[in-house]
Design goal:
Length: 351
């Protein structure tokens, strides 16, 4: 696959072993796509083609392997919704469309908060699936999860404003930003949902647990950058660690990729060290064997998400099917056909 790109892939450091696929995955994603059609998320054929290249159901199956059938189906819907938002707004960031991004994020935030009326298909779908995964969860879990989702949504506004202002992030600013744009940071909270656990707040927020989520999210974001750099450079999207290193070091793309890979190795080692510290820190506040078992389940799900994302990127059509990972719909400009307005269109309510 590397001959299609302007660089060769490095040898990535990956100490986590493969975890297989969720047995609840049927291989077609049919329930997920039925739900998407219900909310008109994939009505445009170009959008559907992009979703088929992305395969949200496969991503869920390889990252959340222990979720039972009902929870797996809900998670597939959430993953599809995330990509519906991301594919619709990333291109608007490159196009410097501040008004569109700001208004869309405001409505999506209302949808996730459950506050006020929402009319666009993507907002209505987001409200429904967010409520689905929050049902029966503790108030503290719902609050933390919802806050993290809203922080992710806010990154689109930050990025489009930065592009309009001509502000270029340095690496020390970009890395914590990528923690949220990678999505994995708040998706790790769904590990608890996936395995049917609701940890006490003080356990979820143990320093080592937070460290695992932060370093895992940063690792995935930077790893994704290596796969996406040619495409993002082609459309003028500057939020990519390889592009930042190229600019700061004034080096070739291949040299920048190798430097970023060294960063990835460091992040992975920090991630693994934090994983080892979790049971140590937990033992200082609790001797409850059941709680220790639950934390081990959640921690395994954290690591499975990291390893699953590693495997997902390596052979999915979204990343490897076309030259420079640019689908045909995007060859003619920065706003491809799959970045349509229909998902964000506000339906007019007639009296």
């Amino acid at each position: 696959m590397s001959e299609k790109l302007s660089y060769e892939f490095p040898q990535f450091y990956m100490p986590l072993h493969e975890r297989g696929l969720n047995p609840a995955w049927g291989g077609s994603g049919a329930p997920m796509y039925d739900w998407a059609r219900e909310f008109s998320l994939t009505a445009d054929p170009a959008v559907m083609r992009q979703m088929e290249r992305t395969q949200p159901d496969f991503a869920t199956a390889i990252c959340l392997t222990k979720a039972g059938p009902e929870r797996f189906e809900a998670l597939c819907k959430y993953v599809l919704w995330v990509w519906a938002v991301d594919d619709g707004l990333d291109e608007r960031v490159s196009a410097r469309d501040t008004v569109f991004v700001t208004e869309a994020v405001a409505e999506l935030t209302r949808a996730i908060e459950g506050a006020g009326e929402v009319r666009s298909p993507v907002a209505r779908a987001g409200r429904q699936v967010h409520a689905l995964v929050c049902a029966g969860r503790s108030a503290q879990w719902c609050e933390e999860f919802t806050a993290e989702v809203m922080m992710w949504l806010a990154t689109f506004v930050r990025e489009v404003a930065a592009v309009r202002l001509g502000h270029v992030m340095a690496m020390e600013e970009y890395l914590p930003h990528r923690r949220y744009t990678s999505v994995l940071g708040w998706f790790m909270h769904l590990s608890e949902y996936a395995v049917g656990v609701d940890l006490p707040h003080q356990v979820r927020m143990l320093p080592a647990m937070v460290e695992v989520r932060y370093r895992g999210a940063e690792w995935i974001g930077i790893y994704n950058d290596v796969f996406s750099v040619d495409r993002e450079d082609a459309v003028g999207y500057p939020f990519n660690s390889v592009l930042i290193v190229q600019r700061e070091r004034r080096c070739s793309r291949q040299e920048a990729v190798e430097i970023v890979n060294t960063m990835l190795t460091g992040l992975m080692k920090q991630f693994m060290a934090a994983v080892e510290q979790v049971p140590v820190q937990l033992s200082l506040i609790s001797t409850d064997e059941n709680l220790h078992t639950q934390v081990a389940q959640v921690l395994e799900s954290y690591t499975t998400q990291v390893r699953g994302n590693f495997d997902y990127h390596r052979d999915r059509p979204r990343y490897v099917e076309s030259a420079a990972y640019l689908p045909g719909e995007q060859q003619r400009g920065i706003r491809p056909a799959y970045s349509t307005d229909e998902r964000f269109h506000r339906e007019v309510v007639r009296p």
